[in-house]
Amino acid sequence: MDNENLYKSLEKPTEDIYTALAQILDRKRNKGAKAHINRVKRDPSSPSHLEECRDTETVIRESPSKTIWKGILLKLLFFVCGALVATFIFLVLYCRICSGCPAGWVLFNSKCYFFSTDKMDWYLSDADCNSLGGHLVIIESYEEQQFLKNEITKRGHGKSYWIGLTDCQTEGRFFWVDGSPLDSHKSFWDTDNNGGIQPDNWKNNGLSPKGEDCVHLQILPYSSGWHDGFCERQEKRICEAATQTITLNM
């Protein structure tokens, strides 16, 4: 079409040929400019896309930071879980070893001790201790003997308590209530105020032919230790039981 216009222009002698050529060149320039504008609009590197590129860079830059925080949080979570597991294991082991005693009982060396306020004979005393989940006390060391003496002293002087020792089966052969024989190196017999040595198996001037077959721990202002006595005698008692194990319900 441009050539046709050119020919028409040449056919007119009054029209300047240079003017016609200039118009044709202007039209071509306008078409090129429009094409350049269209290409710029479609070019992803044009200014209209710069903001989107910045957003993408921001996301890329933020991703490592978020990853670091996630790692820290995961480590913290693992640490807390590990601490909880360790605490649970510690409580299970610790409570089994150092568990407590029932109300009214005294704890010593992982055993519980009950000091009664009422009195019974030796046989009923042991039966009562059994009903409480224990038995009359079995004294196995000097430390345990001293502990019992101190506890009795707290409750006042002139006190006497049955312990789990007897020679009712064979005179002079003492056994504990669990059937174990008395170790002579772990016996704590008292020396009475007359200079005599316990046990003396006193028979009350013949009124008690069987003699004294049951043992009680006696604390007096002038002496303390084990005494054999008549099993029918009414005395307080010391019960012994194992510590209670705390059961953790899961």
From TrEMBL:
<feature type="transmembrane region" description="Helical">
    <location>
        <begin position="72"/>
        <end position="94"/>
    </location>
</feature>
<protein>
    <submittedName>
        <fullName>CD209 antigen-like protein E</fullName>
    </submittedName>
</protein>
<dbReference type="InterPro" id="IPR001304">
    <property type="entry name" value="C-type_lectin-like"/>
</dbReference>
<dbReference type="InterPro" id="IPR033989">
    <property type="entry name" value="CD209-like_CTLD"/>
</dbReference>
<keyword id="KW-0430">Lectin</keyword>
<dbReference type="GO" id="GO:0030246">
    <property type="term" value="F:carbohydrate binding"/>
</dbReference>
<keyword id="KW-0472">Membrane</keyword>
<feature type="domain" description="C-type lectin">
    <location>
        <begin position="108"/>
        <end position="240"/>
    </location>
</feature>
<keyword id="KW-1133">Transmembrane helix</keyword>
<keyword id="KW-0812">Transmembrane</keyword>
<dbReference type="InterPro" id="IPR016186">
    <property type="entry name" value="C-type_lectin-like/link_sf"/>
</dbReference>
<dbReference type="InterPro" id="IPR016187">
    <property type="entry name" value="CTDL_fold"/>
</dbReference>
<dbReference type="InterPro" id="IPR050111">
    <property type="entry name" value="C-type_lectin/snaclec_domain"/>
</dbReference>
<dbReference type="Pfam" id="PF00059">
    <property type="entry name" value="Lectin_C"/>
</dbReference>
